[in-house]
């Protein structure tokens, strides 16, 4: 018995057709379905009766498919009689779309007329799915590539960002370009203050920008603490985990927030990661981040963290460099000023505003203490006083702390273990790196303390030198002798220099011999002042009736061998025989005296010259020169400060001095030296000036010219008085002449020159055995009789005190007054 | 620093060189010294007026004045006038000879306010 096996080829052709693994359709050339197999019906859900004879193939297609049918399928089929693998979406009975691949063959009749179209239909659902996946995968790959590109760009930006601020700026832009975030913000961790603070945001209207403690419950602080990425997927999630976000998310319409810690440290060891900041970015609408995106986000966190770390190191380095430079420059700048007050002022000016908005230095030197401050506003006085006292007492600095009411740091200024004073300051901003900042302030205070202590010592030494110099220069000079008069003037350099070594002296060798000397010691300060004193004493000791100037200078040379600091000092030394008016002079390297005889031009005394004291290379043969001077001669001894200017050759200086001296030949002796110094060097002089002016003998007639200045009347009177005394005019007559002359000059000033402050008044007085005659001349304007009561009294005094008074008003006013030397009537 | 023997033009504001104030018994004593002239009289006058405005008695001592010009006389004249108007007993003490006496005499200054001795002048205005 055999069981018949049905061979495959023996299959029922109908069944094969109906249940083939593909759909079969036969249609008329116009597409009307005439035959369809069961497979097709099963796939599409149509009943045979619905299709056959009723529908065209194209009627089953989607509208897009129908157009494609029209434009491609039908024309191709007509031209080629067959089409292959055309994709259509068919609308099933239940409205579902079924992706199909369609092959068709056009059968023609004997005459070539289209007879029927046979179509096989393959279900392409899975293939289409696969294609879609491929497309999606490509899109994902592209998105990922775009993110990587964005990330690369950011990494490049980060590498080029040298400061924390620039890193923050680069990072905060990343989420928008890489992930399409709506906005993002960056927060940084401040280790020293133990807070997290916001630094940048692409949308400052969102979020909370207050500093938060690192232990805060806020989402940013929590994520920073955990050091791991956190995605808040929805408002509901936020409500659950981070309630502080809810309000902001709602207000700004955000549904997803990503909190990314910015970390640094080895990537493999999670435990040692340090969180330097947090990048927060958010999306409108709920946004799912793919694994790939999350990986990129994490990478961004690491890259940013490293960049921040690097920038912090740079920042730190730069700040340290800045601080070092500031300290060096401050020290150098303080060195430029020697005196205490300017140096203190300079320190304040360095500190404000560069590192502090207010600063005060208080130095316990003298009472009251020296206080200098700059900037503002001043802090609370009471709190400050307390802190100042505490620091001064302990010698330890007190720094402004967080939440400090005073908000000022106070540092002791110390030198050699003693607290000299305090430096108080309020820093401009709350800087990072408080420990480094404090170290910097301590170093600043150390340097300031030393610089100010040096200035204080300098000040002390300077004071001693000044006192010494003053005591030497202001000692008693001979006077009260009608045969001569000495006038001296000393002015120190304007620019706070140490005392110089310029000096003068005048003394009687015998009762008929006067010595005058002006000298200049090399150097400045206390040593120069001391040397000057020694030299002055040596001159006095060496001078005697028997030795002349040359021998005296030789003696000084030997003195200098023992007193090294006097080497190369210069001296102009003159001895005057008051009995016969003969002078002998010698100049050791010093500028030549300037002589003005009553008649003629001024001349420099150029003989008797030799090298400075103790000179090793110069001409040490000491010589002297002798000359007889007529009564009324004036001689000026001076130091180089009077004529030397950096801006002009010394010849010009000599010329100028001679000219100005000649111009004042008729000026009263009193005030002459000071006036000359004013004219030649002014107030802004860089060197000391020392002058000695000697007038010899008694002039037969005195001629003076003064400016129309009431201050000058007393100077004129002094000369006139000396002249009257020298001529042994009786006191009563003398007083009368002085009064009348004063009134006449006052009259010229107040009346004749009332509108001309530059007018000049000439006064000439002559004395005979019988009488004194004085003539006062001005070139002012005569304005008619004097009506002023006060001036009227002046004129009355002139008339009452003199015997004869004559007014001549032909050219200005000349008053000629005469008083008999005998008892007036 | 600057110092000059013989002097520069008279510095202003340095009035103690010419005028000082003290008490002599119950009287305000104004001591003038040196040269009083056009250059310093106005400033000296101001200083004195400020000081003696409320004084009950005033003594002005001129014994060490070495020069007095018409501006000085004007100053004294105004002072005495004002003090008189206020009924304040006043004396000018001035040496019997000397520059100040000469000037005052030449101006015919009121003799009744002049005295030559400080003690006597003080006694006069006390009685």
Helix content of chain B: 25-40%
Name of the level-1 CATH class of chain B = Alpha Beta
Distance between the termini of chain B: 51 Å
User: CATH architecture of the largest domain in chain A, please?
Assistant: 4-Layer Sandwich
Radius of gyration of chain B: 15 Å
What class do helices, strands and sheet pairing of chain A give? alpha+beta
Radius of gyration of chain A: 56 Å
Q: Class of the largest domain in chain A in CATH?
A: Alpha Beta
Largest two-chain interface: A-B, 45 and 26 residues
Strand order of the largest sheet of chain B: 2-3-4-5-6
CATH-defined topology of chain B: Transcription Regulator spoIIAA
Pfam families (chain B): STAS
Protein name (chain B): STAS domain-containing protein
Domain STAS (chain B): 29-127
InterPro entries (chain B): STAS_dom, STAS_dom_sf
Structure, described:
The complex is a heterodimer of chains A (825) and B (127). In chain A, 37% of the residues are buried. Chain A has 5 domains: 8-123, Beta-Lactamase; 133-318, Beta-Lactamase (2-Layer Sandwich); 339-465, Beta-Lactamase; 475-697, PPM-type phosphatase domain (Phosphatase 2c, domain 1); 702-820, Heat Shock Protein 90 (2-Layer Sandwich), CATH 3.30.565. With 825 residues, chain A is an alpha+beta fold. Chain B has 127 residues and is α/β, with parallel strands linked by helices. Chain B has one domain (17-126): STAS domain (Transcription Regulator spoIIAA), CATH 3.30.750.24. Chain B is 35% helix and 28% strand. Chain B contains 4 helices and 6 strands; from the N terminus they run βββαβαβαβα. Chain B has helices at residues 41-52, 70-85, 99-106, 118-126; strands at 2-4, 19-24, 27-36, 58-68, 90-93, 114-115. Chain B has a 5-stranded mixed beta sheet, sandwiched between helices. In chain B, β4 (58-68), α2 and β5 form a beta-alpha-beta unit. Chain B is globular, with a radius of gyration of 15 Å. In chain B, 41% of the residues are buried. Classes of the chains: A alpha+beta (825), B alpha/beta (127). At the A-B interface, α13, β16, α17, α18 and α19 of A face β1, α2 and α3 of B. β16 of chain A pairs antiparallel with β1 of chain B, so a sheet runs across the interface.
């Amino acid at each position: 018995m055999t069981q018949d096996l049905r061979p495959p080829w023996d299959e029922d052709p109908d069944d094969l057709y109906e249940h083939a693994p593909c759909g079969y359709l036969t249609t008329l050339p116009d597409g009307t379905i005439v035959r369809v197999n069961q497979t097709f019906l099963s796939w599409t859900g149509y009943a045979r009766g619905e299709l056959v004879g009723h529908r065209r193939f194209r009627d089953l297609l989607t509208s897009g498919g129908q157009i494609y049918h029209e434009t491609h399928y039908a024309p191709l089929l007509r031209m080629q009689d067959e089409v292959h693998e055309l994709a259509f979406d068919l609308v099933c009975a239940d409205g579902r779309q079924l992706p199909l691949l369609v092959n068709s063959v056009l059968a023609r009749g004997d005459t070539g007329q289209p007879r029927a179209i046979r179509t096989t239909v393959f279900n392409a659902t899975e293939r289409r799915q696969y294609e879609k996946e491929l497309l999606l995968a490509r899109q994902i790959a592209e998105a990922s590539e775009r993110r990587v590109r964005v990330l690369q760009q950011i990494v490049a930006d980060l590498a080029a960002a040298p400061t924390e601020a620039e890193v923050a700026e680069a990072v905060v832009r990343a989420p928008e370009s890489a992930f399409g975030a709506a906005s993002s913000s960056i927060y940084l961790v401040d280790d020293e203050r133990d807070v997290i603070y916001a630094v940048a945001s692409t949308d400052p209207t969102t979020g909370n920008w207050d500093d938060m403690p690192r232990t805060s419950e806020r989402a940013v602080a929590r994520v920073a603490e955990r050091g791991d990425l956190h995605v808040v997927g929805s408002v509901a999630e936020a409500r659950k985990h981070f309630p502080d976000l809810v309000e902001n998310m709602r207000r700004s319409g955000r549904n997803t927030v990503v909190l990314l810690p910015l970390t640094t440290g080895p990537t493999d060891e999670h435990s040692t990661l340090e969180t330097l900041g947090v990048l927060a970015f958010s999306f409108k609408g709920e946004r799912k981040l793919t694994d790939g995106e999350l990986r990129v986000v994490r990478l961004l966190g690491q890259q940013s963290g490293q960049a921040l770390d690097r920038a912090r190191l740079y920042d730190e380095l730069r700040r340290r460099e800045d601080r070092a430079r500031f300290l060096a420059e401050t020290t150098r700048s303080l060195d430029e000023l020697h005196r205490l007050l300017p140096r203190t002022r300079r320190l304040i000016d360095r500190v404000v505003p560069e590192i502090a908005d207010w600063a005060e230095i208080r130095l316990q030197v003298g009472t009251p203490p020296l206080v200098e401050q700059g900037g503002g506003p001043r802090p609370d006085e009471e709190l400050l006083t307390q802190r100042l006292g505490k620091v001064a007492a302990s010698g330890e600095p007190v720094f402004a702390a967080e939440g400090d009411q005073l908000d000022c740091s106070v540092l002791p200024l110390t030198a050699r273990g003693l607290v000299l004073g305090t430096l108080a300051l309020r820093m401009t901003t709350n800087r990072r790196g408080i420990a480094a900042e404090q170290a910097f302030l301590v170093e600043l205070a150390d340097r300031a303390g030393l610089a100010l202590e040096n200035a204080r010592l300098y000040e002390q030494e300077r004071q001693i030198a000044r006192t010494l110099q003053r005591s030497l220069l202001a000692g008693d000079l001979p006077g009260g002798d009608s045969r001569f008069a000495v006038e001296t003037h000393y002015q120190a350099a304007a620019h706070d220099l140490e005392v110089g070594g310029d000096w003068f002296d005048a003394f009687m060798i015998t009762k008929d011999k006067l010595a005058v000397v002006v000298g200049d010691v090399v150097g400045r300060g206390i040593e120069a002042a001391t040397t000057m004193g020694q030299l002055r004493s040596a001159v006095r000791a060496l001078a005697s009736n028997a030795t002349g100037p040359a021998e005296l200078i030789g003696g000084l040379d030997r003195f200098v061998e023992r007193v090294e600091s006097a080497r190369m000092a210069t001296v102009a030394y003159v001895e005057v025989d008051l009995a016969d008016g003969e002078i002998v002079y010698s100049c050791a390297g010093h500028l030549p005296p300037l002589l003005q005889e009553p008649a003629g031009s001024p001349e420099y005394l150029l003989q008797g010259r030799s090298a400075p004291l103790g000179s090793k290379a110069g001409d040490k043969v000491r010589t002297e020169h002798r000359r007889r001077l007529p009564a009324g001669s004036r001689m000026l001894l001076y130091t180089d400060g009077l004529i030397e200017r950096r801006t002009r050759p010394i010849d010009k200086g000599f010329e100028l001095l001679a000219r100005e001296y000649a111009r004042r030949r008729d000026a009263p002796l009193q005030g002459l030296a000071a006036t000359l110094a004013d004219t030649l060097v002014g107030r802004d002089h860089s060197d000391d000036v020392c002058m000695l002016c000697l007038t010899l003998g008694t002039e037969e007639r005195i001629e003076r010219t003064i400016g129309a200045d009431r201050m000058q009347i007393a100077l004129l009177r002094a000369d006139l008085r000396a002249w009257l005394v020298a001529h042994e005019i009786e006191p009563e007559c003398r007083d009368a002449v002085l009064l009348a002359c004063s009134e006449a000059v006052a009259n010229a000033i107040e009346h004749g020159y009332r509108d001309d402050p530059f007018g000049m008044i000439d006064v000439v007085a002559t004395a005979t055995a019988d009488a004194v005659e004085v003539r006062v001349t001005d070139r002012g304007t005569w304005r008619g009789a004097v009506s002023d009561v006060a001036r009227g009294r002046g004129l009355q005094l002139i008339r009452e005190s003199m015997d004869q008074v004559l007014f001549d008003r032909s050219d200005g006013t000349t008053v000629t007054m005469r008083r008999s030397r005998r008892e007036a009537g | 620093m600057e110092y000059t023997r013989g002097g520069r033009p008279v510095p202003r504001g340095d009035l103690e060189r010419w005028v000082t104030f003290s008490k002599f018994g119950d009287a305000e004593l104004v001591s003038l010294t040196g040269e009083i002239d056009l250059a310093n009289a106005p400033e000296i006058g101001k200083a004195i007026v400020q000081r003696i405005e409320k004084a009950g008695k005033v003594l002005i001592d001129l014994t060490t004045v070495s020069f007095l010009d018409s501006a000085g006389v004007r100053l004294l004249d105004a002072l005495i006038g004002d003090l008189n108007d206020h009924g304040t007993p006043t004396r000018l003490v001035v040496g019997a000879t000397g520059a100040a006496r000469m000037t005052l005499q030449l101006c015919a200054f009121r003799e009744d306010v002049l005295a030559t001795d400080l003690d006597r002048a003080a006694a006069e205005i006390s009685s």
